[in-house]
Amino acid sequence: MSTYQVRVEDKTYIINTSLREGNPITILEGMSFGLKPIIADWVGAEEIYGKYVYRNLDDFRRLLDDYKPEEYKKFAEQYDIKKTFNEIKQIIEE
Known about the structure:
By secondary structure, this protein is α/β, with parallel strands linked by helices. Helix content is about 45%, strand content about 10%. The mean pLDDT is about 85.
C-alpha cells in the first residue's frame, strides 16, 4: 500500500495546468471519482477531453460552472486505454 494517498471526498475539480502532456491517467482517475476535469490545451488534449479543455482564463472560469459528477464518472468508465495502446502500437509498426 502506498504511503501517499489523496482524499477526494471534499474535492470538486481535478486541474491539469501542464502545457505538455501525454495522456495523464490522473485526470481519468479523478474523473472516475466524479471530479470535474479542467485541462490546459496541450497537444491532443481537445481530441481526448473535448469540452473540458481551457485555452485562456475565460475558458477556465467557464469550466468552473455546471458541476456534473455522474457525467465525469461515465466519461472515465467509457475511456478505452487498450484502444489507445493499440493505436500507438499500430503507428509504431507502420
